[in-house]
Amino acid sequence: MKSVTKMMMGLLAKNEKNRLRLLLIITFIVAFLDVAGIASIAPYMSLVADPSIIENNDFLNKIFFYLGYTNPSSTSEIKSFLVLMGTFVFLFMVFSMLMKASNIYMLERFAQSCNFTISKKFVRDYLKQDYSWFLDKNSAAIGKNVLSEVGAVVSGVLLPGLMLFTNASCVFIIIFGLFFFDPALALNVFIPLMIIYLLFSLLAKKYLKNIGEDRVSANEERFKIIQSGFSSIKELKVSNLEHTLINDYDDPALRFAKHTASQHIIGKLPRYFIEMVAFGGVLGLVIYLISTNDNFEDSLPVLVLYAAAGYRLMPSLQQLYSQLTTIRFSIPAIEGLYKELDQMISSEDEVFQPTSSDFTFLDSIAAKNITYKYPSSDKDVISNVSLEIIKGSKVGFVGPTGSGKTTIIDIFLGLLSPSDGHILLDGKKLNFIEHAHLRSIVGYVPQTIFLRDGTVAENIAFGFDNKDIDYKKINEVSEIAQISEHINKLPNGFNSEVGERGVKFSGGQRQRIGIARALYRDPQILLLDEATSALDVLTEEKVVHQIMNSLKDVTIITIAHRLSTIKDCDEIFIMEDGKLVGSGSYDNLINSNNLFKQLSQKS
């Protein structure tokens, strides 16, 4: 498995990587200023304890006279100089704190910017995958990655990593300064602290990895349970099964909460041991200085220096450990995202958006020797099918359940790529881009209609900007779909809310809104995939009759739920076990094809 750093960099865009490098440089400079601000207290305390240093130190002597003072022996000038130097030290500390605050702001902004771009990258890359890729993919897992795991990686790896670099820089600068001043004392301060943190880190490493992996699993289970449960809320209510959803949710939600709490606790545990060591260390340092210096006053600046260093070093080490703990806990999350990204077609390009004005077809669309099997199956669901659909014709597909009707249409649309054979448009093979153009002239109505939580008008003009909605056209297509009368009776007409997933409308009403949506696109090809299955016979006949009479120049392809909907088709194709077993007009097939006769009797 790649290192955490390489995986994180793999999730970032090129411009973000450049910004990150610049931020790290700025962060190191700010860490230096932060430490320098605190370290400046010690020399100032030395100066306060012994003002005669001004005369003996060339640097201070030059500053003294440069600031306009003339007599280093004058008590009043010395006091004034000390006040001025104290003010400078204070202002420098304020400046370093402001720089530190600004740096934290930049790091937070960068992290949240990455949260946006990484989640958008996943949405974009998911949308670029072939339709067949989604057949074995759970939508809850996709939602979990985009809405939860990206945020977990940013807050659990990227931001702690940036803060870890900040604190590591501070620790490095402090330790380097202490070693420069007194190596023996530096080792006495540094080694005990590092031993404690390393010990805790090694003990917790494997446990953090295990609970991190289970947190990812529990999170996905939570998303699946909530999505599947609330999408079938009516069935749950009718059957009084609400408790089953609660029971199912309990275990993964509890595991998720427990693991998150455990990670937070582990990240804070060493702090209490460190405080004990620190207090003991200060006492030890005082004893050491007393025993090695005849004049304790001479040791006071050293004590102040180490107290200041400890004041800055302890929080930095604690935060460094806590951030490392958070990163280790989040490694399974970034591994999962990186693996997901590695398995997808990925690029920085936007999703290809053809328009119907870019494309048309003149003569026919045809399948030639098409064979297809799903990636997870060894059996062909379409086997050596050849057929042709003439522009402007009305054709129907019929056959038993599982005969391959929808699959052959998906291949026509380029949603599925055949393992053998190809699709021809006006005699020319279609490539990926041309298939995308073909879909731009298709109005597709599936059996189950997706309605977004918005108004009726917004759902019919789905994909168009709200300010561009043509209400006259909406009314026209709604009349063809035989839904305008119902909509006009609503309190707000076409501006009435449909509710989540169209819950305020019946199945048949949703299907007719779906038909109106397809017609709003001015399609050259209208594809009805059992699009009237939820309608009663009388309403279905009206809808089909209206569509056939209003769209005489449009090529209409119908996957039939009832054979009565395809009586007026120019040609009907019969599918069975993935094979084309017959074709012809309704009258011809009803008299000559036994399978068609059986299907007509069932419908």
The amount of beta strand, in percent, is: 5-15%
Q: Would you identify the CATH H-level superfamily of the largest domain? A: ABC transporter type 1, transmembrane domain
Q: Identify the strand order in the major beta sheet.
A: 6-7-8-3-9-10
Could you say how many structural domains there are in total?
2
Write up what this structure looks like.
The protein is α/β, with parallel strands linked by helices and 603 residues long. It is elongated. The model has no long low-confidence stretch (mean pLDDT 83). The protein has helices at 4-11, 14-39, 41-49, 53-56, 58-66, 75-128, 131-134, 139-181, 183-231, 233-238, 242-268, 270-292, 296-342, 405-412, 432-439, 456-460, 471-480, 484-488, 507-520, 537-550, 586-592, 594-602; strands spanning 364-372, 382-390, 394-398, 420-425, 428-429, 442-445, 525-529, 555-559, 571-576, 579-584. It contains 22 helices and ten strands. The protein is 65% helix and 9% strand. The chain has two domains: 4-342, Up-down Bundle (ABC transporter transmembrane region fold), CATH 1.20.1560; 356-602, Rossmann fold, CATH 3.40.50.
